[in-house]
Amino acid sequence: MSNTIKVKTSLILFLFVALLVGCNNSKTNVDNSTVKTETKALKKILFVVTSHSEKGNTGEKTGYYLGEVSHPWDVLHTAGYDIDFVSPKGGKAPVDAFDMTDSINKKFWDNDIYRNKIENTKTPNEVNPDDYVAIHYAGGHGAMWDFADNTEIAKIAAQIYENNGVVSAVCHGPAGLVNIKLNNGSYLVDGKKVNAFTNEEEVKVKLEDVVPFLLEDQLIERGAIFEKSEPFTEHVVTDQRLVTGQNPQSAHGVGQATLKELQRLTKSNR
């Protein structure tokens, strides 16, 4: 009788320990799964903004166009992407079109984390291209003076693209595309449908003789198939992981098209 009680007690104790271990393993699996999911969600995109603050010798101030940062940022950040900022000189980037009546501009500007990031942009040598799934060139007339000849950022963009990433640009942002070369020696834009701030739009803002070159002409010279709509109407085109928008009105659409490309690539990689 005593032996029977001992056996039963041992059996109950064994079952309790087994159950406890099973629960802990289950919890560990859930925790590990959660960590993996959270890690996977931390995808990064690099935004490029200008360091240049004057329109030639006019005495007029310029910089990056706020809406061409905030609207793509809103689309991509809302979708779960973490965004960093780089500029040719690093540090605080000059801002243009500071319009707080635009709710998306205000949302971006009031975000302490991203306000700090854009006022303390990375220098090109602080950027590891392998950390990013996409790069976005924001416009603003300042980009016409310091994007095209910046070989460091061009190399970063080329590597992101060669890593099967997405390159996007809006308005004057495509100035950063004109000298990007791929490993095969061809220009990134060669043979691809592209758009940007048009010659007509530059004439309408009376800066055609102020900017160092006309963006439309330069992209065509590099082999781009240039598309455009009427001045200051939205136009976004996607071709082979390259997304471009014509003007500030296209900024939100560029964000959406970039997100669509990233989602497409994610599905194809599964």
Q: Helices, strands, pairings?
A:
Elements (H helix, E strand, L loop, with lengths): L1 H40 L1 E6 L15 E2 H13 L2 E6 L8 E2 L6 H7 L2 H7 L15 E4 L5 H4 L4 H12 L3 E5 L22 E2 L4 H6 L10 H7 L3 E2 L9 E4 L2 E4 L5 H18 L2
Parallel strand pairs: 1-3, 1-5, 2-4, 5-6, 6-10, 7-8
Antiparallel strand pairs: 9-10
Helix pairs in contact: 2-3, 2-9
Overview of the molecule:
By secondary structure, the protein is of the alpha/beta class. It is built from nine helices and ten strands. The strands form three sheets. Strands 3-1-5-6-10-9 form a six-stranded mixed beta sheet, with helices on both faces. A two-stranded parallel sheet has the order 2-4. Strand 9 (236-239) and strand 10 form a beta hairpin. Helix 2 (66-78) packs across helix 3 and helix 2 (66-78) packs parallel to helix 9. Residues 26-42 have low confidence and may be disordered.
What is the approximate shape? globular
Order of helices and strands: HEEHEEHHEHHEEHHEEEH
Radius of gyration: 25 Å
Determine the number of helices (DSSP H or I, runs of at least 4 residues).
9
Helix content: 40-55%
Q: Output the strand order for the largest sheet.
A: 3-1-5-6-10-9
End-to-end span in angstroms? 62 Å
Q: Could you tell me the strand content as a percent range? A: 5-15%
Structural class: alpha/beta
Unreliable spans are 26-42
- Round the mean pLDDT to the nearest integer and report it: 89
Work out the oligomeric state of the chains in this entry: single chain
Number of strands: 10
What profile does the largest beta sheet have? 6 strands, mixed
